[in-house]
Design goal:
The chain folds into two domains: 38 residues, no CATH class; 107 residues, DsrEFH-like (Hypothetical Protein Ychn, Chain: A, 3-Layer(aba) Sandwich), CATH 3.40.1260.10. The protein contains four helices and seven strands. Strand 5, helix 3 and strand 6 form a beta-alpha-beta unit. The longest helix has 16 residues. Helix 1 runs parallel beside helix 2. The chain starts with 10 loop residues before the first strand and ends with a strand. The protein is α/β, with parallel strands linked by helices.
Length: 147
């Protein structure tokens, strides 16, 4: 089974169920069943500047990072306006972005999308290209689009 896991994935072994705790298990109490959990790479494309969409994007990213997955967010279209979206009573976007980055989440912004909006740089992340987006899509186990 492990031979099927590619080097792109990380594998985490952890103790799951002691043999004596399973009534269906015929193994001796000294034996232990191990399971493995393949960590996922999640790619998220954020195309919205609506505070609730942005907030939920980073909430999912944070939850995924805390679960041990890797997460990359690519800001496109209106999503490239991330650094201009103010916090509100309900949506503490700057705190969520900071927490996402502290947990080693990656954020990239579409350079063309920024240019169209008259910006030369993004304050929250590096400028990227369609080639970078393609690499993210190709290397991700799952890709989600918000917005």
């Amino acid at each position: 089974m492990l031979s099927q896991v590619t080097d792109v994935h990380q594998v985490l072994f952890r103790h799951c169920i002691p043999a004596e705790s399973s009534s269906q298990n015929k193994k001796s109490p000294e034996e232990v069943i191990f399971c493995y959990h393949v960590l996922m790479k999640l790619g998220i494309i954020l195309q919205s500047n609506k505070p609730e969409h942005v907030w939920n994007t980073f909430r999912l990213g944070i939850t995924s990072l805390k679960a041990g997955h890797t997460v990359e967010v690519f800001l496109m279209s209106e999503g490239s306006e991330l650094d201009a979206i103010p916090d509100s009573e309900y949506f503490d976007i700057s705190k969520k972005v900071a927490e996402f980055k502290e947990l080693k989440g990656t954020i990239l912004a579409c350079g063309t999308c920024l240019e169209i909006r008259g910006k030369k740089e993004a304050t929250v992340c590096p400028i990227s290209t369609m080639s970078d987006l393609l690499k993210m899509v190709e290397s991700s186990d799952k890709v989600l689009v918000f917005g």
